[in-house]
Amino acid sequence: xxxxxxxxxxxxxxxxxxxxxxxxxxxxxxxxxxxxxxxxxxxxxxxxxxxxxxxxxxxxxxxxxxxxxxxxxxxxxxxxxxxxxxxxxxxxxxxxxxxxxxxxxxxxxxxxxxxxxxxxxxxxxxxxxxxxxxxxxxxxxxxxxxxxxxxxxxxxxxxxxxxxxxxxxxxxxxxxxxxxxxxxxxxxxxxxxxxxxxxxxxxxxxxxxxxxxxxxxxxxxxxxxxxxxxxxxxxxxxxxxxxxxxxx
Length: 248
Fold this sequence. Notes:
Layout: H1 2-28, H2 36-60, H3 64-83, H4 90-111, H5 119-150, H6 152-160, H7 165-189, H8 198-205, H9 210-239
Helix pairs in contact: 1-2, 3-4, 3-5, 4-5, 4-9, 5-7, 5-9, 6-7, 7-9, 8-9
């Protein structure tokens, strides 16, 4: 294991030039992300090294999978909460959205027998679905905030007429969810023609047949779609209860 970790560390360092070029291009266009791409790669390398050690223990002691999934949920909730903290009950919306969206989706996948009840499958599906729920919180929350701010006169009008906050913000919630889902929908529709998703490639590299890999990928895609939809609905329902008109 130590030799594998050393190899992973050197591999991570080998990715630094790629991230460095990314940083230079973004700085050239004044995008304003600073060193975040480089930091993200370095951080991911360190985290994957730690995860490799943890997974070795989880696979040998299956009950540890619960603790590992709790860690994934906690990290995803904390990360997404920071992105939407400025919104009405944004942190609560993020945590509830991730737990509800990913939790229900993962539960449905295994309850319907779409995947074998296996520790490796559970961790793989959970990691992918939870990650997409986390992204959905950020995309939906930021879209919602931008739409509400741009159309604050409409919100003020509804509230002045005595409408509930849910009614005043309802249209923004629907639009925010739609915009957040479009990239995922496009990628799903283009699967196999434009892209070979990571779950499919990973399954094949792990020794699965192309048919088995395709089945695994379809389960993941369906799970992602369900999780993102539930997450978006929960997030917009919570932040859309704000009784205040958004201010720039």
